[in-house]
């Protein structure tokens, strides 16, 4: 079946709403509007306004209400329109969702899914183009997942809802139109492990979410140069699946991390540091990073493109790493 | 990595004797470095605190690489590499002159690069016994990578086993060859010799030694070194270095003593300020130098700054030794064996203990007349050993 | 009314009055102990005392049902005790001991108790209101006839979350009872220095949330208003708002020199001490005697001494357990 990322997420929502009466969807314009990105279109008709809830523009309160409803025994899915607006709900996510289990000495869990669109690439300018998933990955007590494929768009949500703890799902806004085949039998997938999207022996390209496509493209170009790149899709940014990453690096001994987040204090920095800690003597070249330039995302297309990690930069980073071999 | 001789290109850090946070003071031994000449103790010339260590034991780094940072009592940072304040002029036998257009032995630039090798390459090199310094890097910016190491290791394994001569000695032989060739090519030597009647000196030595415990007995070499050191006061243009086309007199009289190593090769560590020391002290220091040279634990400063060298091949039965100067020094004094020879004195011939003292000197820095004065002064001084 | 009914009523009234008095005295004694133990270094971190405001917690809890959920603030020892969390478990929590009601992980500001549906001391001002809305939403969706009572101070009324939460609760007609403890100071800032409209009812009413102001120093008035209004909320009338006018007698926290208010003002309010006021009234009505009050005091003192002993005897969690309760499934 040929489908899109958007439809895959919608199917996942529909399945969850059908399977579990405790599940409901809440967020800005998820009902009548059909979701800012059209993800929840049609669900209001199917499930009614009690389970598909349009909220006021009150990010802190409807995210907090999701936490409260989870405390009250439900399995809420809260859609924050974009990661940019989630900053208005940071208090609830960081101070409540992430801490209540711990502060209550394990008495209360928060089985909550928070979905949000993330990333740049559509000329939406600085306030609608953040990639802050790496930021959230800093916080213990929450899980961060980044579906980058149709299978994961379809399968991560249910697993997230089965998780007794809060899971933040970051859907890159450029992926919603991604089209491709998806098995009719596609369903829940694990959210504990990174995936090797392409196997290779010369260099590990580590990425997630919106930059997976460009990274795979870079691997194809490198192959034409005789460089055999392995591509790791992190899938879950917290907790990081270091075992998969390390197995790859032990094989290739070279690492390029591709992250749409800014470089400073970033997820790419975290992975880089961990590899330096655990695999220093397996590294045959300095770890390289391809990240977004340290600038608020500019509006003009040529500048936005220049700011974001692009395929040629990934190729160059990998190529310079293998040195005179190429 | 201090330069301990103009022929030294790199060294392997063997051990740190001080650690970050330790106070260090002038003269402390802070590390041991293995060179092609053997293990050498690195001493520090500043008072301060060892702040950070930049090279770990086992790492081989080029001369000029920062080994450690010492924060001085005045809070300025000192990097331990070349010996600050003292021109690490010459040195160890056998020195290698770089070229005539380049002044010998400038302190290496501070920017001297650490050998670029990936962590994995370093690990593999150590596992496979490959000397990183011998591998050409093919990685980015010439970095030595794992593949480079494995390629070299494979070639090594394929090659017939080299004869079992330790490569350290091979290296030293090559260095001596280069240095002596250069010296002969570049230094216009002139040679003088004088036979010295040692009867007074030997009688005095015997009398002295009867009063001394066995461990403190004096040998003639102590007299030679002291006599030479004092004689240099009279002919100072033989004590120092020829650098950048000019003679520079040594700040003190540091007499390098050529010491043959077991199995070949030699070094010439300095007895510092030999003119200031009494014979007992000199004897102890010379014995100590010989022992440590053979054990491979000389200090960097001892190798770095002799202002003249003395060689004594008397033990081998040699009558006279005409040496080749160790650049950038300008003179080398040789003593042969002390043997009874017919000696004419006051119209009579009798057998007396005699030694032949020789001088090889750099004609750019001095002339034969001045050289003759040096030998004459030595002769005179050896006739009054009680004043030495 | 027959004599028998009157006397039965009187007996009930006396019994209930004693309960109110007893609960208030427990809170006060507990907190006096806390202040002492804080000075002795047994209790660390922040310690915010409730002394002076006891009538609000005790009266409000009397008006709520055991089924209702409670969301509280960082000044919540009174709420916790009045809700039925044992003094021993609470004191152990103050110490950070494993036997504490939050396993020692929360401390003074983060009291949680599943058994009494006590969803936390929340130490971010205003942060608890959205949780209360969500808890009420869950009840609403599942059709359970219960509600959520949410305590917060006058300071929280200035936070955006107050306005978002009242709006959403009213919009969705959720069973939330918003209980504002207006002690006139947001930490050290008097309400008229922080809010343009100091009549807090007006703000609630602007979201079409029914609002009343009640004397928070009068435990009987607090109980009466809470019971009456909570019944309506639980029945499905939608959210409601009560402002309790109260006053804290002690500083904001233990480390507060109180530069922002006059001693006379504090003394004036102490003249309205809810415990002394109730005792006086009950004695005048002949419902309690000095001996009874003395007996109450002895039992409260014994209880709190036991609580301190329990906390002292409590155990420290082993450091090997440091990472527990971050995630439900340990990865």
Structure, described:
The complex is a heterotrimer of chains A (326), B (388) and C (331). Chain A has 326 residues and is α/β, with parallel strands linked by helices. Chain A has helices at 5-19, 43-47, 59-71, 83-86, 90-97, 100-103, 133-136, 150-162, 212-224, 242-252, 267-279, 301-307, 311-322, and strands at 2-4, 23-27, 52-54, 75-82, 113-118, 143-145, 167-172, 179-181, 195-198, 203-207, 229-233, 236-238, 255-262, 288-292. Chain A contains 13 helices and 14 strands. In chain A, the strands form 3 sheets. Chain A has a 7-stranded mixed beta sheet, with helices on both faces. In chain A, helix 9 links the parallel strand 10 and strand 11. The model of chain A has no long low-confidence stretch (mean pLDDT 96). Chain B has 8 helices and 20 strands. Chain B is α+β, with helices and mostly antiparallel strands. In chain B, the strands form 5 sheets. In chain B, strands 9, 12, 15, 17, 18, 19 and 20 form a 7-stranded mixed beta sheet that branches. Chain B has helices at 119-128, 146-158, 167-186, 199-211, 220-234, 279-295, 300-304, 368-382, and strands at 10-16, 23-24, 29-35, 38-43, 48-53, 60-62, 68-72, 77-79, 189-197, 240-243, 246-249, 255-257, 259-260, 266-267, 270-271, 298-299, 308-312, 331-335, 339-345, 348-362. The relative contact order of chain C is 0.16. Chain C has helices at residues 3-39, 54-63, 77-83, 87-95, 128-142, 160-171, 191-194, 200-206, 219-237, 263-270, 274-284, 290-313; strands at residues 69-73, 118-122, 148-153, 176-182, 185-186, 189-190, 211-215, 240-245. Chain C is globular, with a radius of gyration of 20 Å. Chain C starts with a helix and ends in an 18-residue tail after the last helix. Chain C has 331 residues and is α/β, with parallel strands linked by helices. Chains in contact: A-B, A-C. At the A-C interface, helix 3, helix 5 and helix 6 of A face strand 2, helix 5 and helix 6 of C.
